[in-house]
Specification:
Radius of gyration: 27 Å
CATH superfamily of one domain: Immunoglobulins
Structural class: alpha+beta
Number of strands: 10
Strand content: 25-35%
CATH class of one domain: Mainly Beta
Number of helices: 1
CATH topology of one domain: Immunoglobulin-like
Distance between the termini: 121 Å
Helix content: 10-25%
CATH architecture of one domain: Sandwich
Order of helices and strands: HEEEEEEEEEE
Shape: elongated
């Protein structure tokens, strides 16, 4: 009987350990930013953010290029700055754009299509880290340069 009681004590102890294990697992430390809400949408940050998550404010230092002419061929816009992550999104001319993060250069990029613009205009470029955004930086679509005409 002693061995049976020992087995019962062991099983009770095991049950208590099993009950305690899930409680310890649910007390995970806060998740730092960047915080991806979904593997299928890597540039989507869940809102509201989990408690304790601090989102750093992105800062744009420069754009390359910072202007083009209306009707130019398509090109990549590269954004240089600080606090860029894989979840950061370029907000160009009022729209969130497909954004690529280069972890080595710590830059963001997106495609720009000057052929879609009919008139000269200056638009804002903003970087969004979830609910936190950078200040705007101007990008100019300049008028098409006209060659001088000859008069006879």
């Amino acid at each position: 009987m002693t061995s049976k009681k020992h087995d019962d004590d062991t099983s009770e102890h095991t049950v208590e350990q099993k009950r305690a294990a899930p409680a310890a697992a649910s007390e995970a430390p806060p998740v730092p930013f960047p915080y991806s809400a979904s593997l299928n949408e890597p540039q989507t940050v869940s809102l509201p953010l989990p408690e304790g998550v601090q989102v750093p404010e992105p800062v744009i230092e420069s754009l390359s290029p910072d202007s083009c002419m209306v009707g130019d061929p398509d090109f990549p816009l590269i954004v240089y700055g600080d606090n860029f992550f894989a979840d950061s999104v370029i907000h160009f001319a009022g729209h969130d754009e497909p954004t690529t993060f280069d972890p080595d250069a710590k830059t963001l990029s997106t495609g720009v299509k000057p052929s879609l613009w009919a008139e000269p205009v200056i638009v804002d470029v903003i970087i969004k880290n979830g609910p936190v955004s950078s200040g705007p930086v101007a990008f100019e679509f300049a008028p098409i340069a006209r060659s001088p005409t000859r008069r006879k």
